[in-house]
Design brief:
Elements (H helix, E strand, L loop, with lengths): L1 H17 L14 E5 L7 E9 L2 E5 L2 E8 L3 E9 L9 E4 L5 E2 L5 E6 L6 E9 L7 E12 L2
Antiparallel strand pairs: 1-4, 2-3, 2-10, 4-9, 5-8, 5-10, 6-7, 6-9
Length: 149
């Protein structure tokens, strides 16, 4: 009797485990794109001050460290706007490891990539194009934008 009872319990467990269940699981991972800028209070713009004296100049800041965190394709662009027509005499240039390029008019592609797998650090250096403008102080703002391509 004891063996019969054990056999019945075994058959019930076997029947319970033999049934298959199917479940559909859908996971949606949101796109993440985060931009961090050194020298910025709003993580979007970098104010620039340029002091020109005779044949030398000082740009503050001389560079911006940029950090990008993304789990998708991304593009980083920048645009420089002089504070006034006079300030536009100081033609700002940038370099992120390749060749020096002028900001000129419009938006410039600084970098692009895919899933960063953590924070990707970029450094953008600044200098003035020649000829240098007259002695004085010049100001402007660089606006960085992180977008999906």
């Amino acid at each position: 009797m004891r063996n019969l009872f054990a056999f019945i319990i075994f058959c019930l467990f076997a029947a319970a485990f033999a049934q298959q269940a199917e479940h559909d699981l859908k996971v949606s991972i949101p796109s993440i794109m985060i931009l961090k800028l050194s020298n910025s209070s709003d993580q979007e713009t970098v104010p620039v001050a340029i002091e020109v004296k005779d044949e030398s100049y000082q740009i503050t800041p001389g560079q911006t460290q940029i950090e990008v965190l993304a789990n998708r394709d991304w593009s980083l662009s920048a645009r420089y706007e002089a504070a006034s027509q006079r300030d536009a005499q100081a033609r700002l240039m940038w370099n992120s490891g390749a060749t020096w390029q002028g900001f000129g008019y419009g938006t410039k592609l600084i970098a692009s990539g895919g899933n960063t797998g953590g924070w990707q650090v970029l450094t953008v250096d600044y200098k003035l194009d020649t000829p240098l403008p007259p002695t004085g102080t010049y100001q402007g703002v660089i606006t960085y934008t992180l977008t999906k391509p």
